[in-house]
Amino acid sequence: MKISIISFSRSGYRIGEMLSWFLGEGGHEVEAFTKSKYTKKILDESQVEADDKAFRNVKEFAKPIDSSLRDWTGRRFAESDAIIFIGACGIAVRSIAPFVSSKKTDPAVVVIDEQGKFAISLLSGHIGGANELTEEISNLLHATPVITTATDINNKFAVDVFAKTNGCYISDMTMAKEISAALVNGNSVGFASDFPWVGEIPKELQLLDEEDDTKEKPEMGIYVTNSYLKHPFVHTLYLVPKIITLGVGCKKDTPAETVEKVVRKACDELLIPSVSMELVASIDLKKEEQGILEYCKERNLPFETYSAEQLKEVEGSFAESKFVEETTGVDNVCERSAILGSSKHGEKSNLILRKYAEDGVTAALARRKWSVQF
C-alpha cells in the first residue's frame, strides 16, 4: 500500500516518524510530510537527541510542504492508496472534503491524534482498506482503534470487504449498501455462485437452492459470476472476479475502435462484462500492434504475447485456419493465446467462448480455475 503521512505539530511529527518506519518495515511504501511551524527546529540536527538519531536520521524523514493543505491533499488523493493525518479530525475532514468521490476509488483515510491515543478510520473503511490500516496502526502505537462501519461493529458479513478480498468488481454500489443495511437489520440475503468456495458461508447468507423450487428465496441476493445471463434474485448484486483472458488476433493496422467493437460483440455472446478480464494475449507478431495496445491501455489491461512455437504446444481442440497458419506459423492465434495466457497461474483453464471473427479481428475468451474464499 502506498501511504502518505502528514503531521502538524512537534509531537505529531515524532509519531509520524515512528509510524513511517514501522509501516515501511511492514512492506508499505511510505512517504511522510509535515506542515508545522516547528519543522525547521525539528530538522535542526543539533536539537535531535541521540536516541532519535539511532532510530532514524530525521533529516531524511518528512518533507516540509509549502503549498496549501488543499493542494497537497488533492495530489495525495490521486497518487496514494492511503493518507494518514496526525492531528485533529476537523483538519482531515476539511482537507479531504473537496476530493471525496466514490467508495470504489477514494483512498483510505486514517486520523491519529497527536498523542497517539486513538486511530480513526475516516474514509474508505472497506474497499480502500482504512479499517485494516487503522487496526494495523493501533497495534503499532498501542492506540485505541475507532471503526464505525455498521457491519464491523455488528459483526456482520460485509459484501464490499468480501468483494475486495476475492478481487471482484461490484456491479452496483447502491445495491451493495442496501444489502449491508439488510444484513445489519437481520433481513434475509441470498447467495449464489458459479464457482466453488473455500470456507463456510456466513450464517447471514441464505444459499440459493436451484433444485428446490418450493423453497422461498430472498428477493435480494449476491451472485458471484462472470456473466450477466442469469438473474437469480429479484434484486441481484453481481460480484465479478477478474479471471478471464482475452485472446485476440487482427489484421495489421486494425484501429482500436474496431478491436473494441469486435471484442464487445464477442463478450455480448455470453453477456460477459469487460471488467472480468485480467489479461489480453496474442502472438508475438502483434506485440507492436497499435490497435490492440490502445485497447489495453484504455482498460489498464496487461498485454502478453507468445511465439508461434509456444502457441503450438497448447493442448486442446481449436478452430484451424490454413491462412492464419501460413501467415503466423500456427493454425489458431486467439483461442490458443487465451488458453496459454489464462494458464499462467498454474491452474488449468478452459475456453468459454471460441473464436469470434469480424472485420479482420478474432477474439476468444478463456477462464482460469478459481474459487470463492470465505
From TrEMBL:
Where does the record place the Cobalamin biosynthesis central region domain?
Answer: 157-241
Q: Which residues form the CobE/GbiG C-terminal domain?
A: 244-366
Could you tell me which Pfam families the record lists for this protein? CbiG_C (PF01890), CbiG_mid (PF11761), CbiG_N (PF11760)
Alphabetically sorted, this entry's keywords are: Hydrolase
Q: Domain of life of the organism in this record? A: Bacteria
Enzyme Commission no: 3.7.1.12
Q: Which GO terms describe its molecular function?
A: cobalt-precorrin-5A acetaldehyde-lyase activity
Q: Does the keyword Hydrolase apply?
A: yes
Q: Where is the Cobalamin synthesis G N-terminal domain?
A: 73-152
List the protein's name. Cobalt-precorrin 5A hydrolase
> What organism is recorded for this protein?
Blautia stercoris
Question: Quick one: which gene encodes this?
Answer: cbiG
